[in-house]
Amino acid sequence: MRINARLDDEYADKLAFIQQQTNQAVTDVIKSAIDAWTDSQEPNLQGAVSTGDIWQFALLNRESKQITQDLNLYRVPADIDDLLRILVAILS
Description:
This protein has helices at about 10-20, 25-35, 80-90; strands at about 45-50, 55-60, 65-70, 75. By secondary structure, the protein is α+β, with helices and mostly antiparallel strands. A hairpin with a 4-residue loop joins β2 and β3.
């Protein structure tokens, strides 16, 4: 699976610099950043991106360094029941 994301020029330049300095792929950079940020040893980490009104989820498999993006967008308040169900499941 391939995930495409849009970055503004500043973040794209920062990511390119990190990749050049570390000789790592994007998923390796993300995994390294998460490993440095958390002591968790969970093999799978779930994450969310939100603009406040729109939520989207992803899963990072740390061992395979694969990111799986949920293609669904959850809107507040229209999809609040589904959104809360997902958030409760992640936190459980």
